[in-house]
Amino acid sequence: MEADFSEMRNELQSRDALWRRIQLECQQLHTELLKIKEYKDMQEIQIKHQSSCRQITEQLENKNAELLLLAQSQEHQREQLNKIRYHLYREEQAHRSEQERMKTEISDLTEELHQKEITIATIMEKASLLERQLKMELEIKDKLLAKQQLLDFRYKVIKSENTHLKEMV
């Protein structure tokens, strides 16, 4: 996209330079036209140079035709230049809009990522706490199970002693 902008700028500068050259040439032609008119006036005073006057008139007409063509070309160049400027302006606006949209999107994604990181850290803390609680509960249950097994063993021992004593009685 930057290359397109650069190319458009270069073309714009090139057309600007061409337009300035055309204006300069128009001024020169206008100056020549004024000189030719003065010369023509002098020739009209001097009737003996009538043939020269015709040539000057033809040259003047040719120069006028050239000026007309140059003026038309200049107008066309100006229109093209304005179109290019407008297109360049629209492209730059679109580029700026896209950049702003991307900045906003990046900012939103960064904020979302930050929130997710906070959530993950909170979950990890809770998981660590739950793991410690489970270990403690498991230790308590292991101790209670050991006590229960010991009590069961004692119960069986006492029961078997009772049975033995009953048989003896």
Structure description:
The protein is an all-alpha fold and 169 residues long. It has one domain. Helix content is 96%, strand content 0%. The radius of gyration is 51 Å and the shape is rod-shaped. The model has no long low-confidence stretch (mean pLDDT 87). Its main location: cytoplasm. It is found in: Cytoplasm.
User: Biggest sheet, open or closed, and with what strands and sense?
Assistant: none
**Strand-residue proportion:** under 5%
* Low-pLDDT ranges: none
- Looking at the structure, what is the overall shape? rod-shaped
Helix and strand composition category: mainly alpha
- Alpha-carbon Rg, integer: 51 Å
* Total domain count: 1
SSE order, one letter for each helix or strand: HH
Determine the mean pLDDT. 87
Could you tell me the number of beta strands? Answer: 0
Secondary structure tally, helices? 2
What is the helical fraction, as a range of percent? Answer: over 70%
CA(first)-CA(last) distance: 109 Å
Protein name: DEUP1 protein
Subcellular location: Cytoplasm
Organism: Uria aalge (Common mure)
Keywords: Coiled coil, Cytoplasm
Summarize the structure.
The chain has 169 residues and is mainly α. The protein has helices at residues 2-45, 50-168.
Labels describing this entry:
169 residues; mainly alpha; 2 helices; rod-shaped; DEUP1 protein; coiled coil; cytoplasm
Set out the fold topology.
Layout: H1 2-45, H2 50-168
